[in-house]
Amino acid sequence: MTVTDEPQNLRSRAFDKEQLRAKYMEERNKRLRPDGNDQYIEVKGQLAHYLDDPYTPVTPRDPRTDHVTFAFIGGGFAGLATAARLTEAGIKDIRIIEKGGDFGGTWYWNRYPGAQCDTASMVYMPLLEETGHMPSEKYAHAPEILAHCRRIGKQYGLYDNALFHTEVTDLTWDEAHSRWIVTTNRGDAFTAQFVGMGTGPLHVPKLPGIAGIEAFKGHSFHTSRWDCDYTGGDPSGAHMDKLADKRVGIIGTGATSVQCVPHLARAAKALYVFQRTPSSVDVRANAPIDPEWFSGIATPGWQQRWLENFTANQAGGNAEEDLVQDGWTDLSRRIRAKIMQLPREERVPAKMLAAFEDSDFEKMEEIRSRIDTIVGDRETAAKLKAWYRQLCKRPCFHDSYLQAFNTPGTHLVDTDGKGVEKITEKGVVVAGREYQLDCIIYASGFEVGTEYKRRSGFDMSGRGGVKLSEHWAEGMRSKHGIHVHGFPNAFFVQPTQGANLISNVPHNLTEAAKTIAVMVRHARQNGLRQIEVTREAEDKWVELLLTGAGRMIGAPDCTPGYYNNEGREPGPAAKLNVGHPAGPLAYFKYIDTWRSSGDFEGLEFR
Ligand code: NDP
Asked: Is 312 exposed, middle or buried (0-12, 13-18, 19+ CB in 10 A)?
């Protein structure tokens, strides 16, 4: 008996785990490619125009050659949260260097119609309590999040010193003066006592290496450089009136595509959605936030309570209450419930993993069945079904993506795992058929598995001229994911080797921000010029990380994607891309104690 795409069959009988496992493996194997990450092309040379900023004109300015106390690379949540906490700690001269034309990071670039946060705004948007902002929706849309970034920038006085449309080209440690020399592509050469790195994991757009990509004579752009001049409409989702007579193709069906396809389906004369692997799309259930309810819960410390509660529900704690109640916490509650059904003596790793798998099968069956209740055309419905475990790829949640395929003029072009065959002057070819198009939109994602220095644009030189790429040649090494031995006064603001809480990345960033502000204040109050993690402390932290169970998402046997290095043997460095072995909640408790104690165990202040 084979697994069919017919949910009635699946619902009317208990699903067959062996069949599902075999189906998942078949779909995975179909998608494995020998070129892994190399299938994507770097956006440069003839393709460099895909990176141009369509939102803000670049204004000329004089190069800076001064000195600041703190320079932060990246003006997204990491930079804003860190700068806010440093300001509160009394540091006045903070300079954020940002390649976009304003603050916002990913929210500066991603202005495609329908963009919204996937994690509930109440925990996703940083510094809500400090700014007094009430999110308007459970999952706020992009313009509100960008406005919030600007709000933080204004409230903490970060605009005056910021350098926008500026990319750091080099960072070199100057031991004699205990400072960093910062140079940029705008001719700046200034110094900073401390530097922070918040360049984010998903900011370098990538394009699929499809034969003929340069040949297309129509219009094209990447979703992170949305061209409203061409499409009409605006980032708030206003109707894209200029597409009424256009045949539009979108390549990719990840989280971005899921959000913008409904808008394109409404606007375009014809929309072709080119799919290699379907996303799993669960219920979104977005809703406005009621100001009366909000004023009732927004008592002092509310956002920290919500953050801790989300993490406890999502990442292994035993919270009695679930304040956020979304797809992420639901997923974890289901897994926990399955494990708790096991008799106490059977709660051993193998049985617990089996319970996790059962819960996953159930969830994915539910998600697949939902498609049949929404999508009218049977063939299209079948092709939209994701055959892999939910955490193999970024789980998506949406209430009008599947519905979009009922719109006349919207066509799913499934490539059966092979991807688009080629691009011609006139359009896109799949399985030998050419789809003639006026516009191609690349929803092809961002570089993740490429070298760190390719993604950050520079390779910093620490003590003795050692490059970060040399120190990390065998993989990332740090303490807390923040400090790196040999790179004094430099702080990394990102999740890996810390909490590694993927379901709510900003929580990692806001905790790191607090930690950094406490250390910098300590150094300044005590007239200390350098902060550095010792080699022993870094080694000890890395050893601790390696005692954990490894990555929970994107297992090597998952269908390929950026969560699992495109399904290729991850290499020895990948085992270091993990978080605290006891999980995010334990890490957040630990780091709070660590920074509050004032001992700063593992660091040397000079
Ligand atoms: P993804 O990398 O998730 O998706 C890229 C898409 O392009 C995939 O569907 C991929 O298929 C497809 N693709 C690649 N090459 C080809 C090809 N040759 N032919 C056809 N299709 C191809 O990028 P996204 O921009 O969608 O999302 C990136 C990340 O950004 C998300 O995972 C999420 O973390 C974040 N994000 C967050 C949002 C939020 O919080 N609201 C919203 C949007 C994004 P395949 O799957 O087969 O590789």
From this structure: buried
